[in-house]
Amino acid sequence: MSKIFIDPGHGGHDPGAVGKRSKEKDNVLKVANRLKVLLESHGHIVRLSRSTDVFLSLSERARIANAWGADYFISLHDNSATATATGFETFIHSGPVQSKTAGFQNAIHAAIIKEIGIRDRGKKRANFAVLRETRMPAVLIEYAFISNVNDESILINEVEKLARLTANGIVNYAGSNKPVTSNPVLPKGDEEQLNLTKSEREELAKIFKHAREKEIFSSGEHEKSIINGTMTLSRLQYLQTIIAGAGINNGKRIK
């Protein structure tokens, strides 16, 4: 499986953004520690830039990830502005990036926005140091606004949810050594199986193969699950939102 580097922002003498009830450095560290466990359960090798309340420079974070040979880099942050600012957004570098980078961002963004319950501020690009100086596909996440009382409640009280959604997005792109639970988890009995003919399954698998060749997905596990009939309707619909977000529109959407 993949080597995944998780970077909880700030730390030590740098608290990051400060809300009425929490600090950014603490919120993102809690998510990172839980995210590590979830990704390891899918067979990935995971390293954190920090697992405690210590300070590292931005360049040091990138240097460690590069030296380790990480396949993917994810930096976790909380946003801050006015008391009314709200929403979730992701960033990749504003300069030239690997084709995989956009696919990685698409997968993470789609997984989180599906359930986080706040405004989608979009998939963006910026010249952030950790994105500029890393040599692997890198995404920076701004979960929500710590300056907004309602957003801050998500950051404080929904650590497990944020970690799970982030893990889902990463695993949807980087793969897993075990079956991935659809996002969101549905009550038992709601996981409707696809009722498709062999030719329909093969045609659908071609679309997912095309998405993989465009590096929207990094493995062929989705194609295999369509062909062998183990793909559920809810999971297919979720994955199709990732494909659509990447601008691939060939193939009929299953409803």
Notable traits:
alpha/beta, globular, disordered C terminus, 2 domains, 255 residues
Write a compact overview of the structure shown:
This protein is α/β, with parallel strands linked by helices and 255 residues long. The chain has two domains: 3-174, Zn-dependent exopeptidases (Aminopeptidase, 3-Layer(aba) Sandwich), CATH 3.40.630; 186-255, no CATH class.
Task: Please describe what this structure looks like.
The protein has 255 residues and is α/β, with parallel strands linked by helices. It folds into two domains: 3-174, 3-Layer(aba) Sandwich (Aminopeptidase); 186-255, no CATH class. The chain is built from nine helices and six strands. It has helices at residues 24-41, 58-68, 99-113, 129-133, 149-157, 159-174, 198-213, 221-227, 233-245, and strands at 3-8, 45-48, 72-79, 88-93, 120-126, 138-145. It has a six-stranded mixed β-sheet. Strand 1, helix 1 (24-41) and strand 2 (45-48) form a beta-alpha-beta unit. Helix 3 (99-113) runs antiparallel to helix 6 (159-174), helix 3 packs across helix 9 (233-245) and helix 7 (198-213) packs antiparallel against helix 8. The longest helix is centred in the first third of the chain and has 18 residues, at 24-41. Mean pLDDT is 88; it is low at 180-190 and 251-255.
What is the topological layout?
Blueprint: E1 3-8, H1 24-41, E2 45-48, H2 58-68, E3 72-79, E4 88-93, H3 99-113, E5 120-126, H4 129-133, E6 138-145, H5 149-157, H6 159-174, H7 198-213, H8 221-227, H9 233-245
